[in-house]
Amino acid sequence: MKTAFALLSTLVFFAFGAIAQAETQNTTMVSLPNLGSVDASEASLDRLDYGLATRVTTTDLIPNNAYTLWWTVYNYPENCTDGACGTDDVLLTDANGAVIITDDGLPPVNLAQWEAVGISVLRADGMVADQSGSIVFNAHLPIGDVSEAMGGPGIVLPGTAEIHLVVRDHGPADPAILNEMLNTMNGGCEADFPNPPCIDVQVAVFQR
User: Fold this and answer.
1) I need a surface site. Which of 29, 72, 101, 111 has the fewest CB within 10 A?
2) In sequence order, what are the beta bridge partners of 135?
């Protein structure tokens, strides 16, 4: 009994220790592409010794549509193009900032920037919007966890990385393919870029 109690006490100590060491940032979601603030939305990011955690409450979504939430991690934001982390670091763009599309209908990644910035894109959560067009996403990302990654090293430096949380619309929830819609980047959408009806509709940015 004493051994079990001691173990429980140790676990509680470490759990509360981790919480005490968390640094929490809060912001609102921003709609894309017009960059307007989403009413009644809130995104929080906990920076922990062992990784990241987030909770996103958002609205202005289409009722009964399937949505995913994605981490875009910039581990070394000081190496982002022109000092601002964004699409041109993730994908190759032309002189006007438009994403370049190859003959096979795909956007090539910016390999040099992925390496220099330590970029990683990972699925965070997937949900269906309720009748009011609202969703609550929850996710955590331990250091080095790439189990949900589209590429990259995951989170390496949780205390200093720049984090973008992106909400992606997959269209009306289809029960036949709902698991794919909620768990993949382009589930339920066309294979060729920009993969309609999939579209990024909201973002929250957490800088240091």
Assistant:
1) 111
2) 58
